[in-house]
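Tokens for chain A. Residues wanted.
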């Protein structure tokens, strides 16, 4: 998802939001390239990060932890302890945000703490890496859904603006374009893989040989993750017979990871660009916990 400035303009800064039990997580994407270059990405990293921190501070969220989640730290297989952003004084986890916090200074501290994480150079690396931040809502505050949390981060309020609602509705519904479906599915796989890797899991794509998509292992913990992606709100999904059977037969291992509201834009060449999305985890995936409705039947013709 993109971050919107207070004036409604779209910043070149992107993030993804997750909910894990009572913890709210933000995966803030890294910056690369310079403005105007062909590889420019998230060039307003600092402004976008500070905007999100200000919105959370205005609502007294608590910053529980923060860590670098870059390709380099995954390559080095660094633990959370070795990826953690060690903030300079006076900041320490858990950090209560609010009126007493200088958000600009906090953002500078978060960026400065990134330099040495995963860096081989003695002077450290860059300070605009991909990071994961973990939050909890203020005590006694009303519980927010994942969609409300993501809209707060993106727009500054939980209610979706009319223009965004219209765009979302335009993106909903089924598409018979195989390339479109593949783009959405691959985006969802990247989002879910990134999330589990950020949690310390070793992740393998087994979708070609197993009735689930990602095999995730962290120590003695094993998860069979079924990944679903959609540009819609994701109130319902389609499951195959094998997927249903596997979830029923492996209740302690099965996890459903749904990435909804994926942004899909047509490129000049006729392909698709995807971005953003809201991740919701059902862990464990209790197939009986929702409403399972048959939409197709196999009919075996009688013998002549």
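Reply:
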């Amino acid at each position: 998802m993109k971050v919107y400035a207070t004036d409604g303009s779209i910043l070149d800064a992107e993030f993804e939001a997750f909910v894990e039990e009572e913890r709210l997580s933000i995966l803030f994407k890294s910056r690369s390239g310079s403005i105007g270059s062909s590889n420019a990405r998230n060039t307003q990293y600092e402004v976008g990060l500070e905007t999100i921190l200000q919105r959370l501070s205005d609502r007294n969220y608590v910053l529980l932890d923060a860590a670098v989640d870059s390709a380099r730290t995954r390559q080095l297989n660094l633990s959370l302890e070795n990826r953690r952003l060690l903030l300079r004084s006076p900041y320490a986890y858990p950090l209560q945000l609010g009126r007493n916090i200088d958000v600009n200074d906090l953002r500078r501290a978060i960026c400065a703490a990134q330099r040495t994480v995963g860096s081989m150079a003695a002077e450290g690396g860059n300070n605009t890496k991909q990071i994961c931040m973990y939050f909890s809502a203020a005590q006694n505050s009303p519980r927010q859904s994942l969609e409300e949390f993501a809209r707060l981060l993106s727009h500054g309020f939980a209610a979706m603006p009319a223009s965004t609602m219209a765009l979302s509705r335009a993106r909903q519904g089924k598409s018979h374009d195989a390339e479109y479906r593949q783009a959405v599915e691959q985006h969802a796989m990247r989002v879910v893989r990134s999330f589990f890797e950020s949690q310390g899991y070793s992740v393998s794509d087994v979708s070609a040989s197993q009735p689930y998509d990602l095999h995730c292992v962290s120590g003695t913990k094993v998860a069979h993750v079924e990944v679903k992606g959609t540009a819609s709100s994701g109130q319902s999904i389609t499951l195959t017979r094998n997927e249903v059977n596997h979830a029923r037969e492996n209740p302690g291992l099965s996890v459903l990871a749904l990435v909804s509201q994926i942004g899909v834009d047509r490129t000049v060449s006729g392909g698709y660009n995807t971005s953003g999305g809201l991740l919701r985890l059902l862990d464990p995936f209790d197939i009986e916990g929702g409403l399972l409705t048959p939409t197709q039947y196999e009919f075996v013709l009688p013998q002549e």
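The chain has eight helices and 13 strands. Residues 158-176 have pLDDT under 50 and may be disordered.
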